[in-house]
Design brief:
- 17% of the residues lie in helices and 30% in strands.
- It is built from eight helices and 21 strands.
- The strands form six sheets. Strands 8, 12, 13, 15, 18 and 21 form a six-stranded antiparallel β-sheet that branches. A six-stranded antiparallel β-sheet has the order 11-14-20-16-17-19.
- Helix 3 packs across helix 4.
- The radius of gyration is 22 Å and the shape is globular.
C-alpha cells in the first residue's frame, strides 16, 4: 500500500479500509495540526482503518456510519468549518470504540515519508444556516446499527440531538468551550511548539522566589501514540514556585477580564499524561504537580484584583513511566495563596469564569512541597 501511495500523483490522498485486520497496514503516526491553508498546501498520504491489526470487523458496519457522519460535520472537533483527515481519525477512534464497547479500534495515520506527511486531507461539510444555532437530527440512513451492547450503553441514542454547526462568529475558544459538545483538547502538542491551536494561546513559564524553570516542546518524549510533549525542567529553592500557564494574563484582574473568562462549566474533569525523570522511591520523593484554576470572582479582593486560585486535593506525583491523570473539578479547593491573600473568595471555583489553567510545582510546606529539582513531561491535556 505504501508503494501504491507513493505512485499517486494527487496532492492529497486518503485510503479508508473497512475490513478485518486492516490495522496491520501501518504504525500510527499522529498528525501535527497546522492551519487549514497550510495543511491544504502540503502533500499527504493518509490511512484510516476500521480496526486494529488483529481485529475482525462486523459486516454491518458501525465504522461506515460514523465515518459518514464524521465527514458531514460531526468530526469538526475544533469547529472551524472543516474536517481534516486527522480529526476524522480521532473522531472514529472515540466513537467506534464507544459504540462497540471496545470491540473495535479504528487506526489512523500518515505515510512515514518526510515529503508526504505534512499536509492533511480536508473535507468541507455542508454548512447549516448561520443566523442561529442549527440542530441536526441524524438521518436513519446513516445511524449506526447498534448492537444490543451499544444500545445498553446509550451511546448511539445520544447522537440524535447534537449541534451540527456553530455560527462562524461564535467559533472562538470561549464559545466552543461553552456551547460545544464532548471533550475539548486543550493541547496535545502535536504542532511541536508551546502554542495551543485549540485554545488560541501560548503556554508561558513563571517563577516566584529563587527558582529556575525552562519549558520546551520535546519530540523525544510522547504519550499515547503522540509525537511530542511539553518538557518542564525546574529547580526550586526554599519558598519558591514554578509554573506553566495558559489563559488570560494581567497584573490586576478586573471586571473586563471577568467578561473574557472561559466557561468550563460543561466539563467534569481535566485529564493529562504525566512523566518524570526521577523515580519515586524511599530516598527520592519528587514534588507533586498541582493542576490549578485561576478564576474570576466579583466578590473576591486581593492585591491582584478579583480572582482566586484553586488546586486539587489529590496527590499527583510523576513516575518514570507515562501515566494518565484524571482530576475531577469537584476535587479543587482554595489554594494556600487564596486562603492567605484573598478575601471573600468562593469556596469552590466558578467554572464559568476560568481565567487561567496552570500547572504548579511549589516548595512551600503549605503546598506539600520542598526544595527540589526535576524534569517532567506533560502531554495531551483534555477537558472532559
Amino acid at each position: 500500500m505504501e508503494v501504491l501511495a507513493l505512485k499517486v500523483k494527487s496532492k492529497h490522498f486518503i485510503m479508508v479500509f473497512d475490513s478485518c485486520f486492516s490495522g496491520s497496514l501501518f504504525n500510527v503516526v499522529r498528525a501535527a495540526p497546522v492551519d487549514i491553508s497550510e495543511k491544504s498546501a502540503r502533500p499527504v498520504r493518509q490511512f484510516i482503518t476500521a480496526g486494529g491489526a488483529g481485529e475482525q470487523v462486523p459486516d454491518q458496519s458501525v465504522f461506515k456510519a460514523v465515518f459518514l457522519q464524521g465527514i458531514s460535520g460531526d468530526a469538526d472537533l475544533n469547529a472551524d468549518g472543516y474536517v481534516t483527515g486527522s480529526e476524522l481519525g480521532m473522531h472514529l477512534q472515540e466513537k467506534v470504540v464507544n459504540y462497540t464497547r471496545g470491540g473495535q479500534h479504528p487506526q489512523y495515520g500518515k505515510i512515514n515519508n518526510p515529503k508526504l506527511d505534512r499536509g492533511d486531507f480536508i473535507f468541507v461539510p455542508p454548512q447549516a444556516p448561520e443566523k442561529k444555532m442549527a440542530v441536526k437530527r441524524t438521518p436513519e440512513a446513516i445511524e449506526p446499527q447498534a448492537t444490543p451492547r451499544a444500545l445498553e450503553s446509550g451511546s448511539a441514542e445520544g447522537q440524535d440531538d447534537r449541534v451540527a454547526s456553530i455560527p462562524r462568529e461564535a467559533r472562538t475558544p470561549h464559545q466552543v468551550l461553552k456551547r460545544g459538545q464532548g471533550p475539548f483538547v486543550l493541547d496535545d502538542f502535536e504542532d511541536r511548539d508551546l502554542w495551543s491551536q485549540n485554545f488560541y494561546d501560548k503556554w508561558s513559564r513563571h517563577k516566584k522566589g529563587r527558582a529556575r524553570i525552562n519549558v520546551s516542546a520535546d519530540t523525544s518524549q510522547a504519550a499515547d501514540g503522540t509525537s511530542c510533549a511539553m518538557k518542564i525542567e525546574y529547580k526550586l529553592n526554599v519558598k519558591s514556585v514554578v509554573s506553566v500557564r495558559i489563559g488570560i494574563r494581567a497584573p490586576c484582574i478586573n471586571e473586563s477580564h471577568g467578561q473574557r473568562a472561559y466557561d468550563l462549566s460543561r466539563f467534569n474533569s481535566i485529564t493529562f499524561f504525566l512523566k518524570g525523570e526521577k523515580d519515586p522511591s524511599f530516598l527520592s520523593k519528587p514534588n507533586k504537580i498541582l493542576a490549578t484554576l485561576m478564576c474570576y470572582s466579583a466578590a473576591a479582593k486581593s492585591k491582584n484584583g478579583k480572582l482566586a486560585q484553586y488546586y486539587h486535593r489529590s496527590k499527583v506525583v510523576p513516575d518514570k513511566e507515562w501515566k494518565k491523570i484524571e482530576i475531577p473539578f469537584d476535587d479543587f479547593v482554595p489554594s494556600m495563596w487564596t486562603r492567605n491573600k484573598v478575601v471573600d473568595y468562593p469556596p469552590k471555583p466558578d467554572l464559568a469564569k476560568v481565567l487561567q489553567i496552570v500547572f504548579i510545582v511549589s516548595s512551600f510546606g503549605g503546598d506539600g512541597g520542598y526544595p527540589d529539582s526535576n524534569t517532567i513531561w506533560i502531554d495531551e491535556i483534555v477537558l472532559q
